[in-house]
Design brief:
Largest interface: A-B, 47 and 47 residues
Number of helices of chain A: 9
Oligomer: homodimer
Helix content of chain A: over 70%
Low-confidence stretches of chain A: none
Largest sheet of chain A: none
Shape of chain A: elongated
Chain lengths: ~190, ~190
DNA sequence: CCTCCTCTAGAGTGATCGCTCTAATCAGGG
DNA sequence: CCCTGATTAGAGCGATCACTCTAGAGGAGG
């Protein structure tokens, strides 16, 4: 209710992107869902769909990172925090009937070869995620290079599991990916502790 | 030249799907690329875009599986075969300027919540891949349950790495995912051999 | 009151969407 | 030759696409 017109547009677009992707989300549908007149969209985002898309990608990326950070902060150990991220993703998938997964993966694949500004936005988000996760692992005592590998592996695992889980409507892939990621982490911790 | 009209449609559609996704690929563009009159498309695929999409998903899934099988058959050991699959994927990505990746991942995410028959087609393909990979690992002496976990983990890793690699235009994620997958496999082999 | 500027409001633009339709073309059997 | 069914060929359909345009509503300063 207190959300501004601009925020309502961004929120509605983010939800449309998650469900229908970038190409599949129509601007008319977006303004209708946001309960905003069409003219307001081009007032706030004069660059049209591309500018709106770039904003939504960066914003969704930040929001997702904040959620993951909060989950990890609430965990007792780094090992547990990784497991909680995957089990949390599995829970959200199930609760949303396999609709709400990664907010930018679908868009990332769609625009990778067709829309350079949006591709750059997705790349920026992924790189920020990698850096944030790497810092976590470094703080846990893992060497920088190994920490970055773990971070990339973990993000790749969760994204790949999202694809399999949504396609098969099962959390099996997410559960397996979580076990795989935590196994990798434990091995790295064991190594770094001597 | 010897390719039939139907095959040319399927090939053109597969390429359009890889680059633009399901929603982004227009039927007019497809028939133009395939050098086929519009009427022929609806003669061969009376069910329209959905029927064509389902055919292309299953066909691309089978083709991709055949390629991976060939790569693995040409490898000396199961460990090497897994590494070759990832390094081969990285090479294809680089050679195609990060356009040609998994032929169905983009479509899978797009249609997961919007098009039930196509979602089922993608689920079918993924399940076949999992079964095929599981059989490979079982033949290598790994227990059935563990082999299925490895198969799912490997497919999730390669799919997730495709997303990161295409977005960032770098093979780093694919290299890391390959190392992660082969590490998992070696651990499982070590365990199964006592 | 008036002016100025931001924002809301939605009708209307040409282009493209998936799809339907009819006609032409072709091959093989009689 | 004619007939028949499969396939090619593409114009045209209503709907929707991203987007532009003009007009009005609302609040702040004078």
């Amino acid at each position: 209710m207190t959300a501004s017109t601009k925020e309502r547009i961004l929120d509605a677009t983010a939800e449309m992107f998650r469900r229908y992707g970038y190409t599949g989300a129509g601007l008319k549908q977006i303004v209708q869902k946001a309960n905003v007149p069409f003219g307001s969209l081009y007032h706030h985002f004069p660059g049209g769909k591309v500018e709106l898309g770039a904003h939504v990608i960066r914003r969704s990326g930040q929001m997702y990172q904040d959620i993951v950070t909060a989950v990890m902060d609430a965990s007792a150990s780094i090992e547990e925090s990784v497991r909680n991220v995957f089990s949390g993703a599995a829970a959200v998938l199930q609760a949303s009937d396999y609709e709400d997964a990664c907010p930018i993966a679908t868009v990332a694949l769609e625009v990778a070869s067709t829309n350079e500004p949006l591709r750059e936005a997705t790349a920026e988000v992924f790189e920020k995620w990698i850096v944030a996760a790497t810092e976590r692992f470094v703080s846990a005592g893992i060497a920088e290079a190994k920490a970055r590998e773990l971070a990339i592996g973990m993000i790749a695992a969760v994204e790949g599991a999202f694809i399999l889980a949504r396609a098969t409507r099962s959390t099996e892939a997410m559960d397996v990916a979580g076990a795989m990621a935590s196994g990798m982490l434990e091995a790295a911790l064991h190594e770094s502790r001597g």
